[in-house]
Write a structure and sequence with these properties.
Helices cover 22% and strands 32% of the residues. It is of the alpha/beta class and 158 residues long. It has one domain: 2-Layer Sandwich (Tetrahydropterin Synthase, Chain A), CATH 3.30.479.10. The protein has a seven-stranded mixed β-sheet.
């Protein structure tokens, strides 16, 4: 049996070195579907309460919501950080109320104070699934992740 929950994200990114429209900075509505497998708890009736999955996952995923996702070698990155510094928002602003758990892994580094995530690989649906799984795998018995980005999607079973 599986408990399934979905989280929605709004983000901007671009595919560095890509030939086509995605090489330009653009935004998406993304959706992450998390499927957690296990036995139904006789007392609660759930494999895992969906709100519990959502709340635990959101602590990390909020870093990606209304955020800019850039590859670490993107030439836009230094300019974005410099502009944020000049605007006084590099270290956060009172309007930034959604600050997630700090991420610094082999796949990504999040700057929650300024809504920026720097990734090692291009931010495709497939690579974002790999990243999200690495962040959440120790918290749940994840059996499947699906990530949609606009009309595009990818999924992986674990």
């Amino acid at each position: 049996m599986r408990s399934i929950t979905k989280l929605n994200l709004q983000y901007a990114h671009r595919f560095l070195g890509y030939e086509g429209e995605a090489q330009y900075l653009h935004g998406h509505t993304g959706g992450l579907t998390i499927e957690v497998e296990g036995n139904v708890n006789a007392k609660t009736g759930f494999v895992s309460p969906c709100n519990g999955i959502k709340n635990a996952a959101w602590k990390y995923l909020v870093n990606f919501d209304h955020a800019l996702i850039l590859q670490e070698n993107d030439p836009l990155l230094p300019g974005v950080l410099k502009t944020y510094e000049e605007q006084g928002i590099r270290n956060g602003a009172p309007s930034n109320r959604s600050v997630g758990v700090r991420i610094d892994t082999d796949l990504a580094k999040a700057y929650p104070e300024c809504r920026l995530v720097v990734v090692k690989k291009v931010a495709t649906c497939e690579n974002l699934i790999e990243l999200f799984y690495s962040l959440l795998k120790d918290q749940f018995n994840i059996k499947k992740l699906t990530f949609t980005s606009g009309d595009n999607a990818a999924s992986a079973e674990f």
